[in-house]
Design goal:
heterodimer, A: mainly alpha, 12 helices, B: 6-stranded mixed β-sheet, 4-stranded antiparallel β-sheet, 14 strands, 28% strand
Chain lengths: 239, 322
C-alpha cells in the first residue's frame, strides 16, 4: 500500500511539472465557468444540473490528455524497466498510476465548489444540496472510469498521441454516441443498449438519484479496466 | 552469488539467448562482452527479473529469478541501457522516490541518499532537474539509484555509453571500487572497458558464450602471445633470417610501415616461444650486424584481436552451416 501511495504521489506531483496539465485545467475551469452561467440565472432552480450534464462532455476531451502519458511514456522512455526491477508488483504500479491521476482529477474539481458557495449565497430560500452532492458523486465515478480507460489505452502503446486518440475514441463511443442514439433512434433495442451506457447512468446522478446499480456499474467497470491494465503489464512475461 | 544454468530466451522466431551457463563469485566484477545484438541486454533483463526466461534458470544471491523474483529484486541494483529517468524530477526527489519504492525507512533513506550522492559526485546537483543535466550526470543518477539500497548484486547495461573520455575513466574507476563490496555484472561492446575494470570476461556472440575467463586467460587461450617489435635499417631478407636464428624466437614477420620504408627502415615483429624474453638477445644481434636500431618494444596482445577472431570464426561457422 505504501508503494501505491509513493507512485501516486509522484504521478500527482509530475502533473504540476507538465504544461499539458495546466492546459487541461484552464480549459476545464473556463468551460465550467461558462456552463455555470446558464445555471446561475434569476428565476432558475438553484442547482447545477446544466453544469454537471456538460461536465461529462468536457471530461471526454480532457481525460485523454491527463491519462495519455501514464504508461505510454514509461514504455517510451524505458522507465518501466527501472520500475519493474524494483521489488514491486504490477498491481501496485497500476493502482499507483490510477490514484495519482484520479487525485489530480479531484483537484480539478475543487475550484468548482466555489460555484456551490455562490449558489448558496443567492438561492431563495435555500440551496438544495442533495442533487449537487449526488452530481459530484456521479462526476467522480465517471472520472474514475474514464481515467481507468485512459490508463488501459496508455498501457497498450508507447505513443502518447495514440493513447490519447484511442482513449478519446472509446470515451466518445460509450458516452456521446449513446446520448445521440437515445435522442434520435426509434429502435427500442438501440435505446435500451444506450441506456446501459455511461451518459444515461450519469444523468441519474445529476438529477439527484443515487441508484445502487449505477454506483456498482461505475465501480465495477473501473475495476475491470484496471484489471486489464495489470494484465497488459504482465503480458511482457508471456511474449 | 550468481549462478546461471541453460538460460534461454526466444522472442517469437528469434533465439536471442541460447542455453548459456556461468557463475559469478561474490565481489567479482564480470564483463559481459559481445557485439551489438549478441543477447547481452536480454540476459541482463532476465537476471533482473524484467523478462522471464523461455527455459533454464538462474539464481541471484541464492534466490530463483522466476519463483522468488521479489527477493531477487530486493538484492539487486540495475542500471538499464540508456539510463531511463523521470526527467521532470529533481535528482534528490528522484532518489527519494526510488528509496520509498524500495521501502527504505526515512532515516535510512536520507543516510543512503547522502552516501550515493557523494559516491557518484552528485552532491552539487541534488536540487537540479534531471532533464537539465548532461548525459554524464544522468548516468551517475542512474548509478546512484542502483546503489541506493546497497544491493549485493549490481547489474549495469553499457554503463559508459555516451560519456566523454574523462567521465568514462571516472566511471570505470568507480566500478572498480565497487567490486569487493558488490558483485558486479556489466555489459559492454568496448574491449578496453573489460580490460580496465573487470576480473573476468564472458564473451557472448549470437546468444552463446564463446569464451570466458580473465582478460589474461582469454588472450592466452587464443595464443595471442606478446610480440617484440624491432625497427632498424638494413636489408629485409637478411634481417628476417638472422633474427629467426636467435634462440627463443619462434617466427619473424616483416611489417612495412610506410614511414619506415621511406628511410629504408624495416619493422620486424618477432614472436617468442613460451617463457622466453628475447629482447636483450635481439638487440645484441641487431647491433652486432651494424644495423642502426631505432626502436625495440614489447607489444601485448589486446582483447581487441581476440574479439575480432572469435566473432569472425563465429560468422564463418555460420556461413559454412548455411
Amino acid at each position: 500500500m505504501n508503494r501505491v501511495t509513493t507512485i501516486a504521489r509522484r504521478e500527482l506531483l509530475s502533473y504540476f511539472c507538465l504544461p499539458i496539465a495546466y492546459v487541461a485545467m484552464t480549459v476545464f475551469l473556463l468551460a465550467c465557468g461558462f456552463l455555470f452561467w446558464d445555471d446561475f440565472q434569476p428565476g432558475k432552480i438553484a442547482g447545477m444540473r446544466n453544469l454537471f450534464d456538460w461536465m461529462v462532455w468536457l471530461l471526454v476531451s480532457i481525460v485523454p490528455l491527463l491519462s495519455m502519458g501514464l504508461l505510454a511514456q514509461e514504455w517510451a522512455t524505458g522507465t518501466i524497466e527501472t520500475m519493474m526491477t524494483a521489488p514491486l508488483g504490477e498491481t501496485e504500479v497500476v493502482l499507483g498510476k490510477f490514484f495519482g491521476s484520479f487525485f489530480f482529477f479531484l483537484a480539478l474539481l475543487i475550484p468548482t465548489l466555489f460555484y456551490v458557495s455562490v449558489l448558496s449565497l443567492f438561492a431563495v430560500p435555500t440551496i438544495d444540496i442533495g442533487p449537487i452532492a449526488s452530481g459530484y458523486l456521479g462526476i467522480i465515478l465517471v472520472g474514475g472510469l474514464f481515467i481507468a480507460i485512459g490508463l488501459f489505452c496508455s498501457s497498450l502503446t508507447r505513443s502518447q498521441v495514440v493513447a490519447a486518440v484511442a482513449t478519446a475514441a472509446v470515451l466518445f463511443l460509450i458516452t456521446i454516441v449513446p446520448w445521440w442514439i437515445s435522442g434520435t433512434s426509434t429502435s427500442a433495442i438501440l435505446t435500451e443498449i444506450s441506456n446501459q451506457a455511461v451518459f444515461k447512468r450519469y444523468t441519474d446522478f445529476s438529477r439527484g438519484v443515487i441508484d445502487t446499480g449505477n454506483v456498482v456499474f461505475f465501480v465495477l467497470t473501473t475495476a475491470v479496466f484496471l484489471f486489464l491494465t495489470i494484465k497488459v503489464l504482465e503480458s511482457r512475461r508471456w511474449k | 552469488m550468481i549462478s546461471v544454468r541453460d538460460l534461454t530466451k526466444v522472442y517469437g522466431q528469434t533465439l536471442a539467448v541460447d542455453h548459456i551457463s556461468f557463475d559469478v563469485d561474490k565481489g567479482q566484477i564480470v564483463g559481459f562482452l559481445g557485439p551489438n545484438g549478441a543477447g547481452k541486454s536480454t540476459t541482463l533483463k532476465m537476471l533482473t527479473c524484467y523478462l522471464p526466461p523461455t527455459s533454464g534458470g538462474a539464481t541471484v544471491n541464492g534466490f530463483d529469478i522466476f519463483h522468488q523474483s521479489e527477493q531477487v529484486r530486493q538484492n539487486l541494483g540495475y542500471l538499464p541501457e540508456n539510463v531511463p529517468l523521470y526527467t521532470e524530477m529533481k535528482v534528490g526527489e528522484y532518489l527519494d522516490f526510488r528509496g520509498r519504492l524500495r521501502g527504505l525507512p526515512r532515516i535510512e533513506r536520507r543516510k543512503q541518499m547522502d552516501y550515493v550522492l557523494e559516491r557518484c559526485w552528485l552532491t552539487k546537483v541534488e536540487h537540479k532537474t534531471i532533464g537539465h543535466l548532461s548525459k554524464g550526470y544522468r548516468q551517475r543518477v542512474g548509478l546512484a539509484d542502483a546503489l541506493l539500497h546497497n544491493p549485493a548484486v549490481l547489474i549495469m547495461d553499457e554503463p559508459t555509453v555516451g560519456l566523454d573520455p574523462t567521465q568514462i575513466r571516472e566511471t570505470r574507476k568507480l566500478i572498480k571500487e565497487l567490486g569487493g563490496q558488490h558483485t558486479v555484472i556489466l555489459s559492454t561492446h568496448i574491449l578496453p572497458e573489460v580490460e580496465a575494470s573487470c576480473d573476468r570476461a564472458i564473451v557472448i556472440a549470437s546468444g552463446r558464450i564463446v569464451a570466458q575467463g580473465s582478460p589474461e586467460e582469454l588472450r592466452a587461450s587464443r595464443r595471442l602471445t606478446a610480440r617484440v617489435l624491432v625497427e632498424c635499417r638494413g636489408p629485409k631478407a637478411e634481417i628476417s633470417t638472422v633474427l629467426g636464428r636467435v634462440s627463443g624466437v619462434s617466427n619473424v614477420e616483416i611489417l612495412n610501415g610506410q614511414l619506415a620504408e621511406e628511410k629504408n627502415y624495416v619493422t620486424a615483429a618477432i614472436r617468442a616461444k613460451d617463457g622466453y624474453d628475447i629482447r636483450e638477445e635481439v638487440a645484441r644481434t641487431v647491433i652486432q650486424h651494424g644495423w642502426p636500431l631505432r626502436e625495440i618494444r614489447l607489444e601485448h596482445a589486446t582483447l581487441e584481436e581476440f574479439f575480432v577472431q572469435v566473432t569472425a570464426s563465429q560468422a564463418m561457422a555460420r556461413t559454412a552451416a548455411e
